[in-house]
Amino acid sequence: MTRAIQVYPSVVKSDCETEITITSFDGLMLFYDDVEYKIQFVPMEEFDTELDPELRLHCEDNGRKTFCVKPQNGVIRVKYFFIGEQEWTIRIWSDDYQAHFNETATKWGWAWVNKVAERGRRATIYSVGQDLYERRPYKCDFHAHTNRSDGAQPPAVAAACYRRRGYDVLALTDHGIYNTASEIKADYDALKTSFELMTAEEVHNGYNGYFHMVSLGGSYGVSRIFREEPERVRAEVAELEKTVAVPEGLDKNEYLQRVWMYREIKKSGGLAVHVHPCWRTGDTYHCQTKVSRAIFANGLCDAFEIIGDNKAYDNNLQSMLFFEERAKGKKYSFIGATDCHDMFDEKGTFGRASTIVFADKNGILPAIYDNYSVAVESTYGEAPRVYGDYRMIKYALFLMRHYYPIRDSICFSQGDMMLEYFTGGAREELAELITKSESRLGKYDKEFFNGKI
Ligand SMILES: [Zn+2]
Ligand SMILES: [Zn+2]
């Protein structure tokens, strides 16, 4: 959807008929009730008409249906049966626009102005299968730090910055500190925004620990056990030695401690993310490649941070490692995260990565377990790159072009007000405005996704 030609809903269910509404803010082709417009629907990849026997380019298909419609109160309504899971171009033009030609343009010799309606404009719509149709996209960062560990901002400011950047879910994963978000939860609950702060921790085996594994949604912290109950960890790791086979070539102590850590995260109810294995720390990768392969092979994580706070070549390397291991059969989920330590550092990682999770009423974590996530790498000045299952990448790319630009602008103003709220602004008035912006957000989502949300 462009701003000039708006189509609602912009996402429809595939393989059924849906009525859509089209409005125009395009001054060169507005919708007048006394004008007839012509409309065609062109599927991106799965054709719904017989292929032209001449097989010409550009989908100039002779069999394509043309709808002749007149707007009512400036709104065009048309029904179409959208097949398959794909993007569609909607072509709209009119040979009947003469009554609304711009006479000034004719006088001044701007002939092209009055040819626009005849040439037409384009809009976009997307049809998705039942499962994705019933899910809503959530833009998440599952890895970020605050000044409760080595980050630069306090949790409330960090959270407001994330909302400002269009995120729906934030996991504050302070080093070895469980659930930093809890200290600001009451304030967020009072604000009645849909922005979600997830319980999380970046788990380490003690201070400055070698292991880094993000735990999402756990009911208790695991680093604390490493730090405060070393005897217990030692004893339980020794017990593991009796039942767990250490893969050949791996350090026994490291491997068994990793097994213990993963099992403890699972006991806490957390989802374990293997993070930044190819991050160059000092002169080595953070995690030996053979250890990462053993983690994949033996199910010692639930998801993988394919894009993280790394240099491009480190992300490149670890993403190929991930694809290689995933091809062996275990469908680990895709996570893109910033590992951000400073939300005001313009040259830093803030906003440069995210995970889009397609979640239903069961929430974010079950959707990740079910593989409904894609990782997004958003390098400054470059087009975003999306990693995940092909059908979800396609859908996410559509959303990034047509859904997020407007939504991000609403989130920006909401996040801005949150920032002011947490840094000394007039709380009562701001809380009211935040509630209003939340209802705008809800209205936009509802229109975009056919009232499903
Ligand atoms: Zn880390
Ligand atoms: Zn981190």
Characteristic key phrases:
single chain, alpha+beta, Immunoglobulin-like, TIM Barrel, six-stranded mixed β-sheet, five-stranded mixed β-sheet, binds zinc ion
Total number of helices: 14
* CATH superfamily heading of the largest domain: Metal-dependent hydrolases
**Beta-strand percentage range:** 15-25%
* CATH topology label of the largest domain: TIM Barrel
Distance between the termini: 18 Å
- Work out the count of structural domains: 2
For the record, what CATH class of the largest domain applies? Alpha Beta
Radius of gyration: 26 Å
How are the strands ordered across the major sheet?
A: 11-10-9-19-20-21
- Strand segment tally: 21
Shape: elongated
Q: What characterizes the major β-sheet?
A: 6 strands, mixed
Uncertain runs:
none
Portion of residues within helices: 25-40%
Give an overview in words.
There is one protein chain. This protein is an alpha+beta fold. Helix content is 33%, strand content 23%. The protein has a 6-stranded mixed beta sheet with strand order 11-10-9-19-20-21. Strand 20 (373-377) and strand 21 (385-387) form a beta hairpin. The chain contains 14 helices and 21 strands. The chain has helices spanning 103-108, 116-119, 130-133, 155-164, 182-191, 223-228, 230-240, 252-267, 289-297, 312-326, 364-369, 390-402, 404-422, 427-448; strands spanning 5-8, 11-13, 16-24, 37-43, 67-69, 76-82, 86-93, 121-128, 136-144, 169-172, 196-198, 200-203, 213-216, 271-274, 280-281, 284-285, 303-307, 333-336, 353-359, 373-377, 385-387. The protein has 2 domains: 5-132, Immunoglobulin-like (Sandwich); 134-447, Metal-dependent hydrolases (TIM Barrel). The chain starts with a strand and ends in a 5-residue tail after the last helix. One zinc ion (ZN) binds at residues 202, 212, 275-276.
